[in-house]
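2 proteins. here.
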Amino acid sequence: MIQGLKDKVAIVTGGGHGIGKAYCKAFAEAGARVATVDIDGAAAEKVAADLSGKSEGRAISARVDVSDEASTKQMAKLVLERFGRIDILVNNAAIFATIPMNRGGIDTIDPAEWDRMMAVNLKGLFFCCRAVLPTMRAQKSGKIVSISSGTVLSGSLGRIHYVTSKAGVIGFTRTLAREVGGDNIQVNCIAPGSTLSEENPTEEILRMRQAPVQTRSLKRMQKPDDLIGAMLFLCSPLSDFMTGQTLSVDGGQNFL
């Protein structure tokens, strides 16, 4: 187990499902206190209840819409009231799997869907970081990890609005890292490969997740647990002199 996370306070957006749920479980197992937040409040509550059942009082939940600034401010306020500090923010919430998206070409994308994609996947980072940074600056410490995507590195065909939003995550990460480095806050991101994050995948989804295997160095399907090591590393003291970076975790499909 990676050391240095015991009693740290971690917020995971989009923590009610899939990869976010795996992050929440991993933080709890490492001894951290976890705030599971999701637009699906019931799912977030269930994850927190499961974690608290194993270690009472170490997890809370909240329904949060990351595209709404007031909602993200309330998120930070709730965590501070309950745990007294914020050490880690994982910007995982996104339109991708739980919230369906158009996976077609540029001519098939509704402008309203483009705007919603940017509101959640990019403006959500903006609001969540602004909500937690006053506390992290006062503490003179903090870790922010945002989730990009391997589709940015490969120029994946289709869903151009999603790929564009995830490319923005990398630029946002690099600039914010320079802004807050003087306050001893590290800002990094992870670019996952295609991951079987769906909880009840159809045969079609399984085929989609299996397709990239042939282009990977490691010949198997990627699962949420494959991302835990990188996440815990970036949130632990082991990465204290690392900021503005993107870790590609995709089984060797793309090389940075």
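next one coming up
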Amino acid sequence: MNAARRLNMAVLGIILLAFCLQGLLALPKLSATTDEPNHIAAGYSYWQTRDFRMNPEHPPLAKLIATLPLLLIHPRFDISRDDWKNVAEYAFGVRFLYQNDADRILFWSRVPMVLIAAIGLLVTFLWARDLFGEPAGLFAAGMYAFSPNLLAHGMLVTTDVPLAAFEALTLYLFWKKRDVYAGLALGIAMASKFSGAFLPILILALCFARDGRGALRRLVIMAGASLLVIEAAYLFSHSPLIYFKNGLTVNVKVVPNYVFYLFGRFKAGGWWYYFPVAFVLKATIPTLLLIFAALADLRTGFVQRWGEIILTSAIVFHLIITMMGANQIGFRYLLPMFPLLFIWTSRIIPRLAPTRVGMAIIAFLLLWQAWAAIHAFPNYIPYFNELAGGPENGPALLDDSSVDWGQGVKQAADYVRAHQLQNVNLYTFSPFDNPGYYGLPPNIPSSQAFEQLVVNRPAPGVYILSAHYVARFRVVNPAWRDYKPIDRIGESLLVFAF
């Protein structure tokens, strides 16, 4: 038994190493995504000033963790400009990032994010193992390690995967009735992303359903521990009430009457089914097959009643909250479901593992999952599964951070140099992208882009355009459906020659 356990731990170590290597090797290939400069600059400003004015619509913890390495690097930091005084967070973030060595700042800020995502992998293993045995734990960890969806955002200085990791940890500890630790983990989840503030509602319902009157003592312990972490996330410089006050700013910067995009159509207010459809298009086929298999297997009953009730309730709860409250601008809001899904669907492994056919099915699913991740490297963000037609068909289905989030600017610079292109025109995802930093011409000004690119046929030259905008051009001007790209850069930028 000891030899088998050592072997299993060695396999887990290999899985963990494979996940971290994929993220770390991809880091230097990708430019900053839209939210990263202001997250990084805000996090560093918290350490330096204890002033939380920047980026209040996201709680501070993930940003503080990301910028810990910068305390050793000592980047240039200037709060004498108007962008600090006027709380112009995007301008402040871009200036902070690009007045320093941007690639170095990005790399070292992203490394802690990979480590946080790795914590999610370990929790996935532990909970699946405790519920369904060590083979199930290793299988769930393998699915997590090669999930293009978790890899896409698990290396970015953003809040979606930290919430996924710490939400899974919270629910695991809650299931094991480790109330103090569950409360601390709950505080970490809430202080990572404001949608984590809905997690206490789920825990409250589950706790009373499971423990009846005894739930009150457990809830008080967890609440106290979580509030302590929230106050610590604000470096004990504010009351925990600042968390709830800032939570009201989450949608302040949302563009009124913004039209959302799905399947080549625009619609103000979006579609109630947007996120389930996005899940079907963006999750890997092995993930979808596992869900169907686990649902079919559920007819035989629960393997471990409360563990599975907590998992399935959390999955459904998160889907409902996302469908009701999240803006339809990215599949990433569903990422906290993924560790929970990998844990729960591993319930089929004890039934498959004893037979050769079952072992072949397990191996097939893991190899398919691994192929999806390796084939997507390092362009995980625009990943679409085979059912959707792959990443090349992605912009016909979804837009925004499901296809492009500004991560391809550095790849575009490499492409232009390698092909020695002249007369290059750019229109990348965000006006806060900085193509000039990588030796590219500036973006077409937003005020001129519609006339130059949509109303009129583009002037002669080479155009490198965000797939997000090309998808929208095709809806507004049918002529764009006839313009065919001559190449693709990172599956997020399309190259046209006019």
